Amino acid sequence: MEILQYRKDGSTLWATLFVSPWADENGQVIHYFLSFLDITRRHEAEDDLRQLNLDLERRVAERTQGLTAANAHLSRLLAENEVLLREVDHRAKNSLAVASSLLITQAYQQADPAVRALFLETQERLGAMTHAHNLLSKSSDPRQIGLAPYLRDLCTSLMASTGSGAGIRIEVQADDGIDILANRAIALGLIVNELVTNAVKHAFAPDLAGRIEVAARRSRADRVILRVRDNGMGMSTGREGALGYAIIQSLVEQIDGEMDGSPALCVMRVVPNAKDEHMR
User: Fold this and answer.
1) Across-strand partners of 174?
2) Mean pLDDT of the 15-43 span
3) Are 17 and 23 in contact (CB under 8 A)?
4) pTM of the complete model
5) Residue 118 neighbours by CB under 8 Å, 6+ apart
């Protein structure tokens, strides 16, 4: 039994009371022996522990309340950010569409076929940017996109836009599980657009069937090789003076890649793991 006792000086103490019976030779209890054990320090420790628990519960409640408010604020920010991203995406699409329409209008106002062709080629490049933007806007993570589905969708669109359905096939062979950053995806889409469009226009004789292959393979843990080749006449040896080739060289540098050119073969190396690059 725990009881509160008083000392001679009037101060209090907590004690445990022990009661033991004292029997005679016949087994009859004739006395009781009482003893006390001072447990004041234990009581004080228990009181301190209870107070610490109360303080901890209060802090946890305050922290939980703060986290709840922060999560609510973050949810509002994310919702606002999503609305803003949709608005930016919408405006970007509109701007690209207007620019594309202006280029087509200007192209057909040119009497010189060579100048008209330059306008149309620029419009095709802008179309590649538009398509890359559309694919990225559909990605679950706007910061990066899967390379394999991106190339497949891009080449499907190129088949339709280049009119390559008359016997020319575009085949895509890409390893799954490779992600690239959004800014690199735009540049990569323009590179593929230049190479595939060049092959469609110049690699095959009129009315002849052909095949264009776009392949992306992981060569090492941190590198990917992109190959664009055809079974036609290939690239001309004087391509380095062309605008398209200069654009490709510039874009390859933008994605920290390298290019090894030969007839019907172009190799680029890009960083495959976008998540690792975000961490650096």
Assistant:
1) 216
2) 85
3) no
4) 0.60
5) none
